Amino acid sequence: MAMEISDKLNAVLSEDELPLFERAVIFAAAAHKGVTRKGNRIPYLSHPVEAAAIVAELTDDEELKAAAVLHDVLEDTEATVHQLEYYFGDRVTYYVRGESEDKRRNLPPEGTWIMRKQETIDFLKKEADHNAKMLALADKLSNLRSIARDVESIGDQLWERFHQKDRTMHGWMYREIAEALRELEEYPAWKEYDKLIKKVFEENGN
């Protein structure tokens, strides 16, 4: 089932005078409507917007900024590849697809977690270009910032909200991704990401 696009939303998304990023935010807001972050009341849209802000610190590429704010719509909503191509073009869609996991919705998510994360790591190590790596860094840094805040407030209870409840496995994933993104190590965002890995997973006994 494709995401429903009303006539009013279609008119806004088709407005050429509205900048690409603003149209992407509107699409993402519609796609993630009513959804909150795992375990709290924070609107889900705050995550892709933060990821886009991180990308904006790394590059002036407007299409990559748009891809950042759209990076979860294929993975987590009813938005389709065709809809992204229609409103945002092939290049934006290419990077969103690269950032999207194959959720294997016919299988229990906890049973496919390691497989999905390994696929992401392999993609970043073997296939992803520089732009895709910047997008991945922005996504993972935003997530890790949230995790670090929640570790401070609720401790190990945090991990119960995830399909993978073993903190050491999350540590493995974030470290492997840091290595896959090491060509970005001169950027402040990568340095922050590396520092947060140490804070969350090493200072807390992992």
Provide a descriptive summary of the structure in words.
It is a single chain. Helix content is 65%, strand content 0%. It has 206 residues and is mainly alpha-helical. The chain has one domain (9-202): Orthogonal Bundle (Hypothetical protein af1432). α2 runs parallel beside α4. The longest helix is centred in the C-terminal third of the chain and has 25 residues, at 130-154. The chain is globular and about 50 Å long. The termini are far apart. 32% of the residues are buried.
What would the keywords be for this entry?
10 helices, 65% helix, mainly alpha, Hypothetical protein af1432
Gyration radius from CA atoms, angstroms: 17 Å
Q: Provide mean pLDDT, rounded.
A: 93
**Number of H/I helices:** 10
Describe the largest sheet: none
Tell me, briefly, the overall form: globular
CATH superfamily: Hypothetical protein af1432
What is the helix content?
Answer: 55-70%
Highest-level CATH class = Mainly Alpha
What structural class do the secondary elements suggest?
mainly alpha
β-strand amount:
under 5%
